[in-house]
Amino acid sequence: MMSGPDAVLSTRGLAGVDRDVLVQCIQACAECAQACAACADACVSEDTVVELVTCFRTDLDCADVCEATGRVLTRLAGSDASATRAVLEACAAACKACGNECESHAGMHGHCRVCAQACRRCEQACRQLLDSLG
Amino acid sequence: MMSGPDAVLSTRGLAGVDRDVLVQCIQACAECAQACAACADACVSEDTVVELVTCFRTDLDCADVCEATGRVLTRLAGSDASATRAVLEACAAACKACGNECESHAGMHGHCRVCAQACRRCEQACRQLLDSLG
Amino acid sequence: MMSGPDAVLSTRGLAGVDRDVLVQCIQACAECAQACAACADACVSEDTVVELVTCFRTDLDCADVCEATGRVLTRLAGSDASATRAVLEACAAACKACGNECESHAGMHGHCRVCAQACRRCEQACRQLLDSLG
Amino acid sequence: MMSGPDAVLSTRGLAGVDRDVLVQCIQACAECAQACAACADACVSEDTVVELVTCFRTDLDCADVCEATGRVLTRLAGSDASATRAVLEACAAACKACGNECESHAGMHGHCRVCAQACRRCEQACRQLLDSLG
């Protein structure tokens, strides 16, 4: 998709970062943030909302962390590797927590199933980028 | 793309809103926010950054407003139509301002050309959704 | 409070904007965003969460719009007055919607009472800044 | 200040978290996010913007991470301690990076001096909350 980060990042150089892994991670963060925000809203629309309060909270946590991570990665300049790594670790942790929570409701709610998958993909993309950063 | 808002929104009903127009607008907001954030960062990487300060500011304004709009639309319940309409008007205005600014540098900077296109698409998607809301 | 926008904005000039009204509005946006985020979370903690779903949604809408507005105002350069005005109108509308919704639960929930007050203050601060922009 | 997180959080219980340390951290995140956003904008207004590109990037990174952290903390339910801890570690790392960068320009730019102080306070508040979580 040439309208996403792929198109804009391609117009400038990136020092020592695997560009494909980076773009994939930015895209995964955006998709996960959207899936989590939508899942949170779907959770409070369910009759069983009382049982979904933890799910809704981990959804919103994950959405916020994924959005912030996507923005940090867009500015990736390698200037402070330890901060970038810590942000990626936080994003992977938030995705893991939300993926686990949503997976436990996946049999009952389609939005949780979709969200769990987006969380797994984003967690994996963060781990791959962490590996790529060395 | 079944990992985006399309997949999650499809699992619940939406009162009186054209679902396709809504999903298209949420997607356009996400893509525009990404393009603007990337363009802002590319602007400050240019040797001519001094001439791109206004561009960089309208980029960040547009990114922030698009992100907030995408989130508001994800929760669209029709409960307060006037607030939703005002948010969509603000998003269209921010996209127009950023599209104009980036277009004026489009001949010189690829990131501005890509960003201007994303802004035009998002402005149009907001206008279509405004029409669809009646 | 010299650690807020007051301290940093004071170190540079602002073209044609009433600085006090601007700082007050940025501060009101930050406080309203916090109150709304906390109220949303308190809503889903209530036994009567089913009756508070609309409140929770307007809370999150208002928090997102207030945060984006605060950021836009921090960059206020007067470069595109129409976009800034549209963002302030959207913020006032979101605050009004959330203030009304929270006020209707103010007798029952302390977090709604506090949130309604923050919304009223922020709506007023947006209107004052709009007047000040001429 | 009874309009901030203090007022709303006080209306409900918090399982096993030192409430004062939590409120202080949420407040520090909000103030640091504002200082960073304002510093970033002041950086691009300087004649020497070319030398401040790294500062501007760490400012925006820190602002985004602080905002996300503040939101996550507002929902603190202790449900997933490892994700919360990772987010606090990321926030402390972003504040440290931005504090170091801004401090190196503190003699020349008032906005960097103010921002460095806000970063130090927020880093410390994150560390205190991490200690308090045990």
**Dominant shape of chain A:** elongated
The CATH architecture assignment of chain A turns out to be Up-down Bundle
CATH level-3 fold name of chain A: Substrate Binding Domain Of Dnak, Chain:A, Domain 2
What's the overall average pLDDT of chain A, rounded? 88
Identify low-pLDDT runs of chain A: none
| Beginning-to-end CA distance, first to last residue of chain A | 28 Å
Pfam families (chains A, B, C, D): Csp
Protein name (chains A, B, C, D): Four-helix bundle copper-binding protein
Organism (chains A, B, C, D): Nakamurella endophytica
Written description of the protein model:
Four copies of one chain form a homotetramer. The first copy, chain A, has 134 residues and is mostly helical. Helix content of chain A is 75%, strand content 0%. Chain A has helices at 5-9, 19-45, 53-74, 81-103, 110-133. In chain A, α2 (19-45) runs antiparallel to α3. The two termini of chain A are 28 Å apart. The C-D interface holds C 1-5, 7-12, 26, 30-31, 34-35, 37-39, 41-42, 45, 67, 70-71, 74-75, 109-111, 114-115, 117-118, 121 and D 1-5, 7-12, 26, 30-31, 34-35, 37-39, 41-42, 45, 67, 70-71, 74-75, 109-111, 114-115, 117-118, 121. Chains A, B, C, D: This is Four-helix bundle copper-binding protein. Chains A, B, C, D: It comes from Nakamurella endophytica.
